[in-house]
Amino acid sequence: MALKIDPTRFQNLSVDPQDDGVWVVTLNRPNKRNALDIATIEELVDFFSAAPRAGVQAVVLAGAGDHFCAGLDLIEHHDEDRSPADFMHVCLRWHEAFNKMEYGGVPIIAALQGAVVGGGLELASSAHIRVMDQTAYFGLPEGQRGLFTGGGATIRVSDLVGKARMIDMMLTGRVYQGQEAVDLGLAQYMVEESSFDKAMELARRAAQNLPLSNFAICSAVSHVQNMSALDAAYAEAVVAGVVNTQPDARARLAAFADKSAARVRPNK
Ligand code: 1HE
To answer: Are 37 and 12 in contact (CB under 8 A)?
Structure first.
């Protein structure tokens, strides 16, 4: 029985289902530059825990206003004056949210503008595709703030840009933007106009795939990376056994066989 997600139960996120199975999830605290307080993290856990069982075909993850996300809510962190154990549990909730995103099996396309910094970059790097506009920039200001990453940057940002670049970003506050950010892998697309429009286009395209294929793409690839080559090959075979024999794929295979399906061609 599919779960139901009630879009009105979210306060810090705006959650907007579209007709074609694409859901738009927007960080909606622009006056705080979409800083991630604990309430926002809980809403991300809530949405992304339910999404794989609620018929969500793809998600566009956006930030309201001029900036995608300013990272950890530094004011809340200051006011709470947390103990080490308290903050460890905060970080574990971040991991809960971001792991649900990366491993949940629902394609997530991040639409980026302005600051994508600290925990904002950790959030963006949990998406499967990142689209940036001309204003987007990436940084890890933790070093300057007397902090350290706690939302998975050591795993996902170092995966994107490599260990040495990540350490440089943290030690020196180095910021990446423009084509260089794309070349490094921080974003896969850069657009002149709206990153949101491009992210929607990509999400709609992904939503046309069979859900089980997308589940494997947006779950198995990440799981497999955590395994030894021997176990990875085994897991890949098992997943392919399930996905590649799904009854829903037969019509697509038949269309290829009768030559009615589109062929793979180079870009014009
Ligand atoms: C915030 C936050 C925040 C803005 N927490 N409230 N992240 C950072 O070190 C980035 C900190 N933020 C900035 O560098 C800048 O705010 C921005 C470049 C993102 C935007 O600049 P600007 O000039 O548009 O805005 P502003 O005037 O700095 O801030 C506007 C408001 O947003 C202001 O609140 P107001 O009530 O005084 O109007 C700011 O306080 C608020 N605001 N950023 C709380 N981050 C799991 S560990 C993860 C560790 C990290 O993420 S460390 C990186 C933290």
So the answer is: yes
